[in-house]
Design brief:
Strand content: 25-35%
Radius of gyration: 21 Å
CATH architecture of the largest domain: 3-Layer(bba) Sandwich
Low-confidence stretches: none
Largest sheet: 7 strands, mixed
CATH topology of the largest domain: FAD/NAD(P)-binding domain
Mean pLDDT: 93
Number of helices: 6
Oligomer: single chain
CATH class of the largest domain: Alpha Beta
Distance between the termini: 11 Å
């Protein structure tokens, strides 16, 4: 049993790192497997002002490093590898990666979700430099500036209303068909004087030098090209994209319950698979923030420890 981990955490974002901290601090042999950079979406966030205690140097990189160092100080092990298959059939589970295979008593899936991208020129270039996918995270950076919101569902309309608390003017580019927006949300948005609706404008390009300066649209009916530019004197304009997200749930697809691709758990982060828990953005949850992901990770760790105590 010496070579068997108590907990393997798949994914090194805030949920996975929080889980690892709790697990290793409880003297559980803990391994975090991350295929890319630790931190997940948090890693590439320029400034994080809404995570408790992140006052000094509140960058995503800094917060990621603090998460890692704290978990590592209690003995968490880290490997960079890609999980390709998990054998859920045995009590001791096998996690097969591209480079190695690991054995574990429990697994915490913390693989997160990725915002769907527009895939237009300038989107990647200006990500974090005007382009954002989270109003709660970044809205305050655009106080008294112009903002463009892209999306046609409830989330886009709700986030546009949230952004009117900060922005001078909010342009909402959406499909003409508003069947995905509930009537009450649509009515509230229409009553908001700061929101300017663009029902037939399809985004073509995001332009700028160091930061976003303008957004190019094409009218879906006439084909006319228009460009919305930042107000003279402004340093940047915001572009917020709300066209959905893609959960990274492929590893458990077919083994446990999913809802729109997100993994279903109970309040203890348990799945249908004994000894397998989930934390963070990949699970069904009403809020996806760093602080809620970290809380999920703590709960998953405590639930996994209880499972180990009862079964081994």
């Amino acid at each position: 049993m010496d070579n068997i981990y108590d907990i393997i955490v798949i994914g090194g974002g805030p949920a996975g790192l929080s889980c690892a901290l709790y697990s290793s601090r409880a003297n559980l042999k803990t391994l975090v497997i991350e295929k890319e950079s630790l931190g997940g979406q948090m890693f590439s966030t320029g400034s994080i002002e809404n995570y408790p205690g992140s006052i000094e140097n509140p960058t995503g990189l800094s917060l990621t490093n603090r998460f890692k160092e704290q978990a590592e100080s209690f003995g968490t092990e880290f490997v960079t590898d890609t999980v390709v298959k998990i054998d859920f059939n045995e009590k001791i589970k096998s996690v097969e990666c591209e480079k190695n295979t690991f054995k574990t008593k429990t697994i915490v899936v913390a693989t997160g979700a990725k915002p769907r991208k527009l895939n237009v020129p300038g989107e990647e270039e200006f990500s974090g430099k005007g382009v954002s996918y989270c109003a709660t995270c970044d809205g305050a950076f655009f106080k008294d500036l112009d903002i463009v919101v892209i999306g046609s569902g409830n989330s886009a309309f709700e986030e546009a209303m949230e952004l009117t608390k900060f922005g001078r003017k909010v342009y909402l580019a959406h499909r003409k068909n508003l069947s995905k927006v509930t009537p009450v949300i649509l009515e509230r948005a229409r009553k908001n004087e700061k929101i300017h609706f663009l029902p037939e404008e399809e985004i073509q390009e995001i332009k700028g030098e160091n930061f976003v300066d303008s957004v190019v649209f094409k009218n879906s009916s006439t084909g006319e090209i228009t460009e919305i530019s930042k107000t003279d004197g402004d340093s940047v304009m915001g572009v917020f994209v709300f066209i959905g997200a893609t959960p990274n749930s492929m590893l458990v697809d077919g083994f446990t319950s999913l809802e729109n691709g997100y993994i279903v758990t109970d309040g203890d982060m348990k799945t249908d698979i004994p000894g397998v828990f989930v934390a963070g953005d990949v699970r069904v949850t009403p809020i996806r923030q760093i602080v809620t992901a970290a809380a999920d990770g703590a709960i998953a760790s405590i639930s996994a420890e209880k499972y180990i105590n009862e079964n081994f």
